[in-house]
Amino acid sequence: AMAPGKKITARIKRTLPVKGPQAPTLSELMRWYCLNTNTHGCRRIVVSRGRFIWILLTLSAVGLILWQCAELLMNYYSASVSVTVQFQKLPFPAVTICNINPYKYSSMKDYLSELDKETKKALETFYGFSEGKSKVRRSVDEWNSTGSDFFQQIPLLKFEDFSKTATDFRSGQKRKIEGSVFHRDSSIVNSGDSNDIIGFQLCDANNSSECALYTFSSGVNAIQEWYKLHYMNIMAQIPLETKEKLSYSADDLLLTCFFDGLSCDKRHFTRFHHPLHGNCYTFNSGENGTILSTSTGGSEYGLQVVLYIDEADYNPFLVTSTGAKIIVHDQNEYPFIEDIGTEIETAAATSIGMHFTRSRKLSKPYSDCTETGADIPVENLYNKSYSLQICLHSCFQKAMVDSCGCAQYAQPLPAGAEYCNYKKNPNWMYCYYRLHEKFVKEQLGCQQICKDACSFKEWALTTSIAQWPSTVSEDWMLRVLSWDKGQKINKKLNKTDLANLMVFYKDLNERFISENPANTLVILLSNFGGQLGLWMSCSVVCVIEIVEVFFIDSLSIVMRRQWQKAKKWWNDRKRDQLGKPPQAGDLERQGHDNPVCIDEDLPTFNTALRLPLPQDNPLPRTPPPNYSTLRLETAFTEQLPDTLEVGQH
Asked: Which residues constitute the signal peptide according to the record (predicted)?
Protein backbone atom coordinates (compact mmCIF):
# COMPACT_ATOMS: atom_id res chain seq x y z
CA ALA A 1 0.00 0.00 0.00
CA MET A 2 1.12 3.56 -0.71
CA ALA A 3 2.11 5.68 2.24
CA PRO A 4 -0.20 8.61 3.12
CA GLY A 5 2.46 11.21 2.30
CA LYS A 6 3.06 9.73 -1.13
CA LYS A 7 -0.68 9.59 -1.77
CA ILE A 8 -0.97 13.30 -1.05
CA THR A 9 2.01 14.04 -3.34
CA ALA A 10 0.52 11.94 -6.12
CA ARG A 11 -2.85 13.65 -5.76
CA ILE A 12 -1.19 17.12 -5.98
CA LYS A 13 0.75 16.06 -9.06
CA ARG A 14 -2.43 14.87 -10.77
CA THR A 15 -4.19 18.16 -10.18
CA LEU A 16 -1.31 20.43 -11.25
CA PRO A 17 -0.61 21.22 -14.91
CA VAL A 18 2.64 20.33 -16.64
CA LYS A 19 5.34 22.53 -15.04
CA GLY A 20 8.95 23.67 -14.94
CA PRO A 21 11.50 22.17 -17.33
CA GLN A 22 9.03 19.39 -18.23
CA ALA A 23 6.95 21.96 -20.15
CA PRO A 24 7.14 21.05 -23.84
CA THR A 25 7.53 24.68 -25.09
CA LEU A 26 9.03 27.96 -23.89
CA SER A 27 5.63 29.66 -24.02
CA GLU A 28 4.17 27.13 -21.58
CA LEU A 29 7.19 27.61 -19.32
CA MET A 30 6.75 31.38 -19.33
CA ARG A 31 3.02 31.00 -18.62
CA TRP A 32 3.75 28.69 -15.72
CA TYR A 33 6.33 31.15 -14.35
CA CYS A 34 3.96 34.13 -14.55
CA LEU A 35 1.21 32.21 -12.74
CA ASN A 36 3.43 30.89 -9.96
CA THR A 37 6.07 33.57 -9.33
CA ASN A 38 5.91 35.93 -6.35
CA THR A 39 7.19 38.83 -8.43
CA HIS A 40 4.55 41.51 -8.85
CA GLY A 41 3.34 42.29 -12.34
CA CYS A 42 4.15 38.99 -14.04
CA ARG A 43 0.91 37.28 -12.94
CA ARG A 44 -1.14 40.28 -14.09
CA ILE A 45 0.31 39.85 -17.58
CA VAL A 46 -1.45 36.46 -17.84
CA VAL A 47 -4.71 37.01 -15.97
CA SER A 48 -5.48 40.71 -16.54
CA ARG A 49 -7.42 42.12 -19.45
CA GLY A 50 -4.96 45.04 -19.68
CA ARG A 51 -2.12 42.69 -20.60
CA PHE A 52 -0.16 45.22 -22.67
CA ILE A 53 -0.30 47.84 -19.93
CA TRP A 54 1.10 45.35 -17.44
CA ILE A 55 3.78 44.29 -19.90
CA LEU A 56 4.80 47.96 -20.25
CA LEU A 57 4.80 48.52 -16.49
CA THR A 58 6.79 45.35 -15.80
CA LEU A 59 9.40 46.15 -18.45
CA SER A 60 9.69 49.71 -17.11
CA ALA A 61 10.24 48.39 -13.59
CA VAL A 62 12.92 45.98 -14.87
CA GLY A 63 14.63 48.83 -16.73
CA LEU A 64 14.63 51.03 -13.64
CA ILE A 65 16.09 48.21 -11.56
CA LEU A 66 18.89 47.63 -14.08
CA TRP A 67 19.63 51.37 -14.28
CA GLN A 68 19.74 51.86 -10.52
CA CYS A 69 21.84 48.73 -9.96
CA ALA A 70 24.29 49.87 -12.67
CA GLU A 71 24.62 53.22 -10.88
CA LEU A 72 25.28 51.42 -7.62
CA LEU A 73 28.00 49.30 -9.23
CA MET A 74 29.68 52.29 -10.87
CA ASN A 75 29.71 54.19 -7.58
CA TYR A 76 30.89 51.21 -5.56
CA TYR A 77 34.55 52.25 -5.75
CA SER A 78 33.91 55.87 -4.81
CA ALA A 79 35.47 57.31 -1.69
CA SER A 80 34.32 59.82 0.87
CA VAL A 81 36.74 62.35 2.35
CA SER A 82 36.91 62.92 6.07
CA VAL A 83 38.85 65.69 7.82
CA THR A 84 40.04 65.22 11.40
CA VAL A 85 41.59 68.06 13.41
CA GLN A 86 43.43 67.35 16.63
CA PHE A 87 45.54 69.53 18.91
CA GLN A 88 48.80 67.98 19.98
CA LYS A 89 52.54 68.43 20.17
CA LEU A 90 53.83 68.49 16.59
CA PRO A 91 57.18 67.35 15.17
CA PHE A 92 59.04 70.22 13.57
CA PRO A 93 59.75 69.71 9.85
CA ALA A 94 63.13 69.78 8.17
CA VAL A 95 64.03 73.23 6.81
CA THR A 96 66.57 73.34 3.99
CA ILE A 97 68.24 76.71 3.28
CA CYS A 98 70.32 77.54 0.18
CA ASN A 99 71.98 80.67 -1.09
CA ILE A 100 70.54 81.59 -4.48
CA ASN A 101 74.12 81.93 -5.73
CA PRO A 102 75.49 78.36 -5.63
CA TYR A 103 79.24 79.07 -5.61
CA LYS A 104 81.40 81.99 -4.62
CA TYR A 105 82.22 83.86 -7.79
CA SER A 106 85.70 84.67 -6.56
CA SER A 107 86.43 80.97 -6.07
CA MET A 108 85.06 80.05 -9.52
CA LYS A 109 87.16 82.59 -11.41
CA ASP A 110 89.63 80.07 -12.78
CA TYR A 111 86.91 77.72 -14.01
CA LEU A 112 84.62 80.34 -15.56
CA SER A 113 87.08 82.89 -16.91
CA GLU A 114 86.83 81.76 -20.52
CA LEU A 115 83.02 81.49 -20.39
CA ASP A 116 82.77 84.96 -18.83
CA LYS A 117 84.97 86.41 -21.56
CA GLU A 118 82.79 84.85 -24.23
CA THR A 119 79.67 86.25 -22.55
CA LYS A 120 81.09 89.77 -22.24
CA LYS A 121 82.22 89.70 -25.86
CA ALA A 122 78.68 88.74 -26.95
CA LEU A 123 77.22 91.59 -24.87
CA GLU A 124 79.69 94.03 -26.38
CA THR A 125 78.97 92.86 -29.95
CA PHE A 126 75.17 92.76 -29.71
CA TYR A 127 74.35 95.44 -27.13
CA GLY A 128 77.46 97.68 -26.89
CA PHE A 129 78.21 96.47 -23.36
CA SER A 130 81.73 97.33 -22.13
CA GLU A 131 83.72 96.56 -19.00
CA GLY A 132 83.50 100.13 -17.82
CA LYS A 133 79.72 99.94 -17.56
CA SER A 134 79.71 96.60 -15.79
CA LYS A 135 79.16 96.18 -12.07
CA VAL A 136 81.56 93.25 -12.07
CA ARG A 137 84.61 94.31 -10.09
CA ARG A 138 87.05 91.75 -11.36
CA SER A 139 89.88 91.92 -13.82
CA VAL A 140 89.87 89.37 -16.58
CA ASP A 141 92.40 88.58 -19.26
CA GLU A 142 92.20 90.26 -22.64
CA TRP A 143 89.86 88.81 -25.22
CA ASN A 144 91.23 85.71 -26.85
CA SER A 145 90.12 85.86 -30.48
CA THR A 146 90.69 82.20 -31.11
CA GLY A 147 88.73 80.87 -28.09
CA SER A 148 88.04 77.24 -27.52
CA ASP A 149 86.55 74.79 -29.93
CA PHE A 150 83.68 74.29 -27.50
CA PHE A 151 82.46 77.89 -27.76
CA GLN A 152 82.99 77.89 -31.51
CA GLN A 153 80.59 74.99 -31.86
CA ILE A 154 77.72 76.69 -29.96
CA PRO A 155 78.04 80.49 -30.26
CA LEU A 156 75.39 83.11 -29.58
CA LEU A 157 73.63 84.27 -32.75
CA LYS A 158 71.55 87.31 -33.72
CA PHE A 159 68.72 86.61 -36.14
CA GLU A 160 67.34 89.37 -38.32
CA ASP A 161 63.62 89.73 -39.07
CA PHE A 162 62.77 86.20 -37.88
CA SER A 163 64.73 84.73 -40.77
CA LYS A 164 67.38 82.03 -40.86
CA THR A 165 70.09 84.61 -41.50
CA ALA A 166 72.18 85.03 -38.36
CA THR A 167 75.19 87.07 -37.23
CA ASP A 168 77.91 85.23 -35.32
CA PHE A 169 79.15 87.42 -32.47
CA ARG A 170 82.64 85.88 -32.68
CA SER A 171 83.33 86.76 -36.29
CA GLY A 172 80.65 89.38 -36.85
CA GLN A 173 79.81 87.73 -40.19
CA LYS A 174 76.35 86.80 -41.40
CA ARG A 175 75.65 83.23 -42.36
CA LYS A 176 72.73 81.09 -43.35
CA ILE A 177 71.48 78.73 -40.67
CA GLU A 178 70.75 75.32 -42.14
CA GLY A 179 68.89 72.50 -40.47
CA SER A 180 65.78 70.43 -40.71
CA VAL A 181 64.49 71.60 -37.31
CA PHE A 182 63.76 75.25 -36.61
CA HIS A 183 62.52 75.78 -33.08
CA ARG A 184 61.37 79.18 -31.82
CA ASP A 185 59.89 80.24 -28.52
CA SER A 186 56.13 80.59 -28.98
CA SER A 187 55.89 83.83 -27.00
CA ILE A 188 58.49 86.06 -28.62
CA VAL A 189 58.02 89.66 -27.61
CA ASN A 190 60.13 92.41 -29.18
CA SER A 191 60.38 96.01 -28.08
CA GLY A 192 61.44 99.00 -30.09
CA ASP A 193 61.91 99.15 -33.83
CA SER A 194 64.38 96.30 -34.02
CA ASN A 195 63.18 92.85 -34.93
CA ASP A 196 66.52 91.21 -34.09
CA ILE A 197 66.33 88.24 -31.72
CA ILE A 198 69.07 86.31 -29.91
CA GLY A 199 69.44 82.56 -29.76
CA PHE A 200 71.76 79.67 -30.39
CA GLN A 201 71.89 76.60 -32.55
CA LEU A 202 72.40 72.99 -31.45
CA CYS A 203 73.31 70.38 -34.04
CA ASP A 204 73.69 66.66 -33.96
CA ALA A 205 77.39 65.85 -33.83
CA ASN A 206 76.80 62.77 -35.97
CA ASN A 207 74.65 64.58 -38.54
CA SER A 208 75.32 68.28 -39.02
CA SER A 209 72.11 68.76 -41.01
CA GLU A 210 70.04 67.81 -37.94
CA CYS A 211 69.92 71.05 -36.01
CA ALA A 212 67.62 72.79 -33.56
CA LEU A 213 67.50 76.55 -33.34
CA TYR A 214 66.48 78.09 -30.00
CA THR A 215 65.39 81.71 -29.83
CA PHE A 216 63.98 83.57 -26.85
CA SER A 217 61.56 86.35 -26.07
CA SER A 218 64.31 88.46 -24.52
CA GLY A 219 68.03 88.81 -24.93
CA VAL A 220 68.37 88.41 -21.16
CA ASN A 221 66.73 84.98 -21.32
CA ALA A 222 68.83 83.95 -24.33
CA ILE A 223 72.13 84.93 -22.71
CA GLN A 224 71.24 83.29 -19.39
CA GLU A 225 70.15 80.05 -21.04
CA TRP A 226 73.28 79.98 -23.20
CA TYR A 227 75.44 80.70 -20.14
CA LYS A 228 73.78 77.92 -18.08
CA LEU A 229 74.30 75.49 -20.92
CA HIS A 230 78.07 76.00 -20.89
CA TYR A 231 78.11 76.37 -17.09
CA MET A 232 76.67 72.86 -16.60
CA ASN A 233 79.23 71.50 -19.05
CA ILE A 234 82.05 73.02 -16.97
CA MET A 235 80.65 72.01 -13.56
CA ALA A 236 80.15 68.40 -14.69
CA GLN A 237 83.93 68.06 -14.96
CA ILE A 238 84.68 69.30 -11.42
CA PRO A 239 84.81 66.66 -8.63
CA LEU A 240 82.18 66.84 -5.88
CA GLU A 241 84.74 67.43 -3.12
CA THR A 242 86.08 70.46 -4.98
CA LYS A 243 82.61 71.88 -5.56
CA GLU A 244 81.79 71.61 -1.86
CA LYS A 245 84.84 73.71 -1.09
CA LEU A 246 83.91 76.29 -3.74
CA SER A 247 80.46 76.78 -2.20
CA TYR A 248 79.40 78.36 1.10
CA SER A 249 80.18 76.76 4.44
CA ALA A 250 77.78 76.78 7.40
CA ASP A 251 79.85 79.51 9.02
CA ASP A 252 79.59 81.59 5.86
CA LEU A 253 75.81 81.28 5.55
CA LEU A 254 74.57 81.30 9.17
CA LEU A 255 75.04 84.29 11.48
CA THR A 256 72.56 83.63 14.31
CA CYS A 257 70.16 80.78 15.14
CA PHE A 258 67.34 80.25 17.65
CA PHE A 259 64.83 77.43 17.96
CA ASP A 260 61.96 77.19 20.44
CA GLY A 261 63.46 80.07 22.42
CA LEU A 262 66.90 78.40 22.74
CA SER A 263 70.13 79.15 20.92
CA CYS A 264 71.31 76.79 18.16
CA ASP A 265 74.34 76.65 15.88
CA LYS A 266 75.76 74.90 12.83
CA ARG A 267 75.74 71.54 14.65
CA HIS A 268 71.96 71.50 14.24
CA PHE A 269 72.35 71.79 10.44
CA THR A 270 73.28 69.06 7.98
CA ARG A 271 75.10 69.91 4.76
CA PHE A 272 73.38 68.88 1.57
CA HIS A 273 75.02 69.57 -1.80
CA HIS A 274 72.61 70.50 -4.56
CA PRO A 275 73.92 70.50 -8.17
CA LEU A 276 72.24 73.82 -9.01
CA HIS A 277 72.36 75.57 -5.61
CA GLY A 278 75.67 74.41 -4.18
CA ASN A 279 75.94 73.74 -0.46
CA CYS A 280 72.55 73.82 1.27
CA TYR A 281 71.95 73.28 4.97
CA THR A 282 69.06 71.37 6.51
CA PHE A 283 67.85 72.14 10.01
CA ASN A 284 66.36 69.18 11.94
CA SER A 285 67.28 66.65 9.24
CA GLY A 286 66.90 63.74 11.68
CA GLU A 287 70.20 62.18 10.60
CA ASN A 288 71.23 61.56 14.21
CA GLY A 289 67.91 59.83 14.91
CA THR A 290 66.42 62.79 16.80
CA ILE A 291 63.59 64.91 15.40
CA LEU A 292 62.85 68.13 17.23
CA SER A 293 59.27 69.01 18.12
CA THR A 294 57.42 72.05 19.39
CA SER A 295 54.64 72.29 21.95
CA THR A 296 53.75 75.95 21.42
CA GLY A 297 52.73 77.88 18.33
CA GLY A 298 53.90 81.36 17.39
CA SER A 299 56.97 83.02 15.91
CA GLU A 300 58.90 83.01 19.19
CA TYR A 301 58.89 79.22 19.35
CA GLY A 302 59.95 78.37 15.85
CA LEU A 303 63.23 78.61 13.94
CA GLN A 304 64.87 82.05 13.68
CA VAL A 305 68.05 82.51 11.65
CA VAL A 306 69.96 85.43 10.20
CA LEU A 307 71.64 84.58 6.89
CA TYR A 308 74.72 86.16 5.37
CA ILE A 309 74.11 86.41 1.62
CA ASP A 310 77.27 88.30 0.46
CA GLU A 311 75.80 89.82 -2.70
CA ALA A 312 79.17 91.16 -3.86
CA ASP A 313 80.40 87.60 -4.51
CA TYR A 314 77.49 86.68 -6.80
CA ASN A 315 77.93 85.39 -10.34
CA PRO A 316 76.50 88.21 -12.50
CA PHE A 317 75.51 85.96 -15.42
CA LEU A 318 74.24 82.86 -13.61
CA VAL A 319 71.76 84.47 -11.17
CA THR A 320 70.04 87.84 -11.43
CA SER A 321 68.27 87.91 -8.03
CA THR A 322 69.66 88.17 -4.51
CA GLY A 323 68.63 86.24 -1.43
CA ALA A 324 68.14 82.71 -0.23
CA LYS A 325 65.83 79.82 -1.00
CA ILE A 326 64.21 77.61 1.59
CA ILE A 327 61.94 74.59 1.50
CA VAL A 328 59.98 72.96 4.32
CA HIS A 329 59.75 69.19 4.00
CA ASP A 330 59.59 65.91 5.86
CA GLN A 331 62.82 64.33 7.03
CA ASN A 332 62.36 61.42 4.59
CA GLU A 333 61.60 63.62 1.59
CA TYR A 334 64.09 64.99 -0.90
CA PRO A 335 64.15 68.84 -0.95
CA PHE A 336 63.40 69.87 -4.52
CA ILE A 337 64.57 73.40 -3.84
CA GLU A 338 64.65 74.29 -7.55
CA ASP A 339 61.01 73.31 -8.07
CA ILE A 340 59.07 74.40 -5.01
CA GLY A 341 61.52 76.48 -2.97
CA THR A 342 60.45 79.79 -1.42
CA GLU A 343 62.72 82.77 -2.05
CA ILE A 344 63.82 84.96 0.86
CA GLU A 345 64.83 88.51 0.06
CA THR A 346 67.62 90.48 1.69
CA ALA A 347 67.21 93.52 3.96
CA ALA A 348 63.90 92.05 5.13
CA ALA A 349 62.47 89.86 7.87
CA THR A 350 60.51 87.01 6.33
CA SER A 351 58.01 85.22 8.56
CA ILE A 352 56.68 81.87 7.38
CA GLY A 353 53.73 80.48 9.32
CA MET A 354 52.89 76.79 8.85
CA HIS A 355 49.79 74.62 8.98
CA PHE A 356 50.49 70.88 9.12
CA THR A 357 48.32 68.46 7.14
CA ARG A 358 48.63 64.72 6.69
CA SER A 359 46.78 63.19 3.77
CA ARG A 360 46.05 59.62 2.81
CA LYS A 361 44.32 58.39 -0.33
CA LEU A 362 42.93 54.95 -0.99
CA SER A 363 44.96 52.89 -3.43
CA LYS A 364 43.59 50.70 -6.20
CA PRO A 365 40.82 50.23 -7.17
CA TYR A 366 39.71 53.57 -5.67
CA SER A 367 42.53 55.70 -7.13
CA ASP A 368 45.67 55.30 -9.19
CA CYS A 369 48.22 56.00 -6.47
CA THR A 370 51.09 53.96 -5.07
CA GLU A 371 51.84 53.14 -1.45
CA THR A 372 55.66 52.88 -1.53
CA GLY A 373 56.57 53.20 -5.21
CA ALA A 374 57.67 49.56 -5.35
CA ASP A 375 55.18 48.89 -8.13
CA ILE A 376 56.61 51.70 -10.31
CA PRO A 377 59.17 50.41 -12.88
CA VAL A 378 61.52 53.36 -12.28
CA GLU A 379 64.63 53.22 -10.11
CA ASN A 380 64.63 55.77 -7.27
CA LEU A 381 67.91 57.69 -7.66
CA TYR A 382 67.44 59.94 -4.61
CA ASN A 383 67.50 57.38 -1.74
CA LYS A 384 64.48 59.08 -0.18
CA SER A 385 60.84 58.09 0.22
CA TYR A 386 58.87 57.92 -3.02
CA SER A 387 57.21 61.00 -4.48
CA LEU A 388 55.91 61.95 -7.91
CA GLN A 389 58.78 64.40 -8.46
CA ILE A 390 61.39 61.77 -7.61
CA CYS A 391 59.82 59.39 -10.09
CA LEU A 392 59.68 61.99 -12.90
CA HIS A 393 63.28 63.15 -12.40
CA SER A 394 64.57 59.57 -12.12
CA CYS A 395 62.66 58.56 -15.24
CA PHE A 396 64.11 61.46 -17.26
CA GLN A 397 67.63 60.73 -16.01
CA LYS A 398 67.31 57.10 -17.06
CA ALA A 399 66.08 58.17 -20.50
CA MET A 400 68.99 60.60 -20.69
CA VAL A 401 71.53 57.86 -19.99
CA ASP A 402 69.87 55.46 -22.43
CA SER A 403 69.53 58.00 -25.26
CA CYS A 404 72.55 60.26 -24.81
CA GLY A 405 75.05 57.95 -23.11
CA CYS A 406 75.56 60.23 -20.09
CA ALA A 407 73.64 61.77 -17.18
CA GLN A 408 72.26 65.29 -16.85
CA TYR A 409 74.16 67.39 -14.34
CA ALA A 410 71.22 68.62 -12.25
CA GLN A 411 70.08 65.14 -11.16
CA PRO A 412 71.71 62.23 -9.27
CA LEU A 413 73.90 59.77 -11.12
CA PRO A 414 72.56 56.30 -11.95
CA ALA A 415 74.86 53.36 -11.25
CA GLY A 416 77.69 53.13 -13.79
CA ALA A 417 76.93 56.47 -15.47
CA GLU A 418 78.83 59.75 -15.53
CA TYR A 419 77.80 63.35 -16.04
CA CYS A 420 77.74 64.75 -19.54
CA ASN A 421 80.53 67.05 -20.72
CA TYR A 422 81.44 68.27 -24.17
CA LYS A 423 84.86 66.62 -24.23
CA LYS A 424 83.58 63.07 -23.71
CA ASN A 425 80.08 63.53 -25.11
CA PRO A 426 80.13 66.17 -27.87
CA ASN A 427 76.51 65.41 -28.78
CA TRP A 428 74.97 65.66 -25.31
CA MET A 429 73.58 69.21 -25.57
CA TYR A 430 71.59 68.55 -28.73
CA CYS A 431 70.44 65.23 -27.29
CA TYR A 432 69.45 66.80 -23.96
CA TYR A 433 67.39 69.59 -25.49
CA ARG A 434 65.57 67.26 -27.83
CA LEU A 435 64.91 64.79 -25.01
CA HIS A 436 63.70 67.53 -22.67
CA GLU A 437 61.32 68.76 -25.36
CA LYS A 438 59.82 65.27 -25.57
CA PHE A 439 59.58 65.13 -21.78
CA VAL A 440 57.65 68.41 -21.60
CA LYS A 441 55.29 67.20 -24.33
CA GLU A 442 54.79 63.93 -22.35
CA GLN A 443 56.21 61.82 -25.17
CA LEU A 444 58.76 59.92 -23.04
CA GLY A 445 56.10 58.03 -21.10
CA CYS A 446 57.31 59.25 -17.69
CA GLN A 447 54.05 61.02 -16.87
CA GLN A 448 52.16 57.84 -17.74
CA ILE A 449 54.36 55.58 -15.58
CA CYS A 450 54.75 57.76 -12.50
CA LYS A 451 51.90 58.00 -9.99
CA ASP A 452 51.07 60.10 -6.98
CA ALA A 453 51.95 58.80 -3.54
CA CYS A 454 48.98 57.62 -1.47
CA SER A 455 50.34 59.11 1.76
CA PHE A 456 52.08 62.43 2.10
CA LYS A 457 52.66 65.30 4.50
CA GLU A 458 52.20 68.92 3.62
CA TRP A 459 53.05 72.18 5.32
CA ALA A 460 50.93 75.03 4.02
CA LEU A 461 53.03 78.20 4.23
CA THR A 462 51.88 81.76 4.83
CA THR A 463 54.60 84.32 4.13
CA SER A 464 54.81 87.87 5.40
CA ILE A 465 57.65 90.36 4.92
CA ALA A 466 58.78 93.35 6.94
CA GLN A 467 61.67 95.76 6.47
CA TRP A 468 64.69 94.65 8.49
CA PRO A 469 66.63 96.06 10.15
CA SER A 470 64.66 99.24 10.78
CA THR A 471 66.21 102.58 10.06
CA VAL A 472 66.71 103.46 13.75
CA SER A 473 68.25 100.09 14.66
CA GLU A 474 70.24 99.53 11.49
CA ASP A 475 73.45 101.16 12.72
CA TRP A 476 73.93 99.28 15.97
CA MET A 477 72.68 95.93 14.64
CA LEU A 478 75.07 95.96 11.70
CA ARG A 479 77.95 96.91 13.99
CA VAL A 480 77.21 94.06 16.41
CA LEU A 481 76.72 91.52 13.63
CA SER A 482 79.96 92.71 11.98
CA TRP A 483 81.76 92.25 15.28
CA ASP A 484 80.31 88.72 15.64
CA LYS A 485 81.45 87.97 12.12
CA GLY A 486 84.67 89.94 12.44
CA GLN A 487 86.99 86.99 12.65
CA LYS A 488 85.75 85.72 9.29
CA ILE A 489 85.29 88.86 7.18
CA ASN A 490 87.22 92.10 6.98
CA LYS A 491 84.44 94.56 6.18
CA LYS A 492 81.38 96.10 7.74
CA LEU A 493 78.21 94.29 6.89
CA ASN A 494 75.61 95.88 4.68
CA LYS A 495 71.90 95.22 5.22
CA THR A 496 71.58 94.01 1.60
CA ASP A 497 73.93 91.17 2.58
CA LEU A 498 71.61 89.94 5.34
CA ALA A 499 68.26 88.13 5.47
CA ASN A 500 66.20 87.42 8.57
CA LEU A 501 64.09 84.24 8.45
CA MET A 502 61.48 82.92 10.90
CA VAL A 503 59.71 79.56 10.41
CA PHE A 504 57.04 78.55 12.94
CA TYR A 505 53.71 76.82 13.48
CA LYS A 506 50.78 79.24 13.47
CA ASP A 507 48.88 76.71 15.57
CA LEU A 508 49.31 73.12 16.71
CA ASN A 509 46.22 71.80 14.97
CA GLU A 510 47.09 68.73 12.95
CA ARG A 511 44.71 68.21 10.05
CA PHE A 512 44.32 64.65 8.85
CA ILE A 513 42.56 64.21 5.50
CA SER A 514 41.69 60.63 4.68
CA GLU A 515 39.63 58.78 2.12
CA ASN A 516 37.26 56.04 3.20
CA PRO A 517 35.22 53.66 1.03
CA ALA A 518 31.79 55.16 0.45
CA ASN A 519 30.31 51.68 -0.03
CA THR A 520 30.90 48.23 1.38
CA LEU A 521 29.67 44.87 0.17
CA VAL A 522 26.93 44.85 2.81
CA ILE A 523 25.72 48.29 1.77
CA LEU A 524 25.83 47.31 -1.89
CA LEU A 525 23.72 44.19 -1.34
CA SER A 526 21.30 46.18 0.82
CA ASN A 527 20.90 48.77 -1.93
CA PHE A 528 20.30 46.01 -4.49
CA GLY A 529 17.61 44.53 -2.25
CA GLY A 530 16.01 47.92 -1.79
CA GLN A 531 15.78 48.50 -5.53
CA LEU A 532 14.35 45.01 -6.18
CA GLY A 533 11.79 45.42 -3.41
CA LEU A 534 10.83 48.96 -4.45
CA TRP A 535 10.10 48.28 -8.09
CA MET A 536 8.99 44.62 -8.25
CA SER A 537 8.61 43.40 -4.65
CA CYS A 538 11.38 40.93 -5.43
CA SER A 539 13.99 39.29 -3.22
CA VAL A 540 17.17 37.32 -3.72
CA VAL A 541 15.09 34.13 -3.92
CA CYS A 542 13.12 35.69 -6.79
CA VAL A 543 16.38 36.49 -8.56
CA ILE A 544 17.50 32.87 -8.18
CA GLU A 545 14.12 31.78 -9.51
CA ILE A 546 14.50 34.05 -12.53
CA VAL A 547 17.96 32.64 -13.22
CA GLU A 548 16.65 29.09 -12.95
CA VAL A 549 13.60 29.59 -15.19
CA PHE A 550 14.99 31.95 -17.81
CA PHE A 551 18.39 30.33 -18.15
CA ILE A 552 18.52 26.78 -16.82
CA ASP A 553 14.97 25.64 -17.62
CA SER A 554 14.79 27.50 -20.92
CA LEU A 555 18.12 26.06 -21.99
CA SER A 556 16.95 22.59 -20.97
CA ILE A 557 13.81 22.89 -23.14
CA VAL A 558 15.77 24.18 -26.12
CA MET A 559 18.41 21.46 -25.80
CA ARG A 560 15.72 18.77 -25.38
CA ARG A 561 13.90 19.82 -28.53
CA GLN A 562 17.14 19.93 -30.45
CA TRP A 563 17.98 16.46 -29.17
CA GLN A 564 14.57 15.13 -30.27
CA LYS A 565 15.00 16.62 -33.71
CA ALA A 566 18.48 15.14 -34.03
CA LYS A 567 17.25 11.75 -32.82
CA LYS A 568 14.32 11.78 -35.28
CA TRP A 569 16.65 12.74 -38.11
CA TRP A 570 18.98 9.87 -37.19
CA ASN A 571 16.13 7.33 -37.02
CA ASP A 572 14.72 8.50 -40.35
CA ARG A 573 18.16 8.21 -41.91
CA LYS A 574 18.63 4.66 -40.62
CA ARG A 575 15.15 3.66 -41.75
CA ASP A 576 15.77 5.07 -45.23
CA GLN A 577 19.02 3.11 -45.45
CA LEU A 578 17.24 -0.14 -44.45
CA GLY A 579 14.17 0.58 -46.63
CA LYS A 580 11.64 0.08 -43.80
CA PRO A 581 8.30 1.91 -43.84
CA PRO A 582 7.65 4.37 -41.02
CA GLN A 583 6.09 2.86 -37.90
CA ALA A 584 3.16 4.32 -36.05
CA GLY A 585 5.24 4.47 -32.93
CA ASP A 586 7.75 6.65 -34.72
CA LEU A 587 5.23 9.40 -35.34
CA GLU A 588 5.82 12.46 -33.31
CA ARG A 589 3.71 12.48 -30.24
CA GLN A 590 2.34 15.58 -28.69
CA GLY A 591 0.79 16.62 -25.42
CA HIS A 592 0.65 13.94 -22.77
CA ASP A 593 1.43 11.18 -25.27
CA ASN A 594 4.93 12.65 -25.33
CA PRO A 595 7.15 10.17 -23.43
CA VAL A 596 8.86 13.11 -21.76
CA CYS A 597 5.61 14.02 -20.04
CA ILE A 598 4.78 10.47 -18.91
CA ASP A 599 4.50 10.37 -15.14
CA GLU A 600 4.11 7.41 -12.85
CA ASP A 601 0.69 8.82 -11.87
CA LEU A 602 -2.41 8.33 -13.97
CA PRO A 603 -3.74 11.41 -15.78
CA THR A 604 -6.49 13.37 -14.16
CA PHE A 605 -10.00 13.59 -15.57
CA ASN A 606 -9.32 16.89 -17.29
CA THR A 607 -6.07 15.74 -18.85
CA ALA A 608 -7.67 12.47 -19.93
CA LEU A 609 -10.31 14.35 -21.91
CA ARG A 610 -7.49 16.04 -23.82
CA LEU A 611 -5.76 12.80 -24.82
CA PRO A 612 -5.58 12.44 -28.65
CA LEU A 613 -7.62 9.68 -30.28
CA PRO A 614 -6.19 7.03 -32.62
CA GLN A 615 -6.31 8.25 -36.19
CA ASP A 616 -7.59 5.11 -38.00
CA ASN A 617 -9.92 3.65 -35.35
CA PRO A 618 -13.59 4.56 -34.87
CA LEU A 619 -14.69 6.46 -31.84
CA PRO A 620 -15.11 4.09 -28.88
CA ARG A 621 -18.62 3.69 -27.52
CA THR A 622 -19.50 3.40 -23.90
CA PRO A 623 -19.65 -0.35 -23.03
CA PRO A 624 -22.78 -1.72 -21.31
CA PRO A 625 -22.45 -2.07 -17.59
CA ASN A 626 -21.54 -5.43 -16.16
CA TYR A 627 -24.51 -6.02 -13.87
CA SER A 628 -22.79 -8.82 -12.13
CA THR A 629 -20.52 -6.30 -10.64
CA LEU A 630 -23.50 -4.67 -8.97
CA ARG A 631 -24.17 -7.83 -6.87
CA LEU A 632 -23.22 -7.32 -3.27
CA GLU A 633 -20.85 -9.87 -1.88
CA THR A 634 -20.03 -10.39 1.70
CA ALA A 635 -16.62 -10.63 2.99
CA PHE A 636 -17.58 -13.63 5.16
CA THR A 637 -18.11 -17.26 4.07
CA GLU A 638 -21.20 -17.81 6.25
CA GLN A 639 -24.09 -15.51 7.06
CA LEU A 640 -25.24 -15.12 10.58
CA PRO A 641 -28.77 -16.38 11.32
CA ASP A 642 -30.04 -13.06 12.58
CA THR A 643 -29.25 -11.38 9.26
CA LEU A 644 -31.52 -13.57 7.18
CA GLU A 645 -34.67 -12.06 5.64
CA VAL A 646 -38.08 -12.79 7.21
CA GLY A 647 -39.54 -14.33 4.04
CA GLN A 648 -37.08 -17.11 4.21
CA HIS A 649 -38.32 -18.38 7.51
From this structure: none
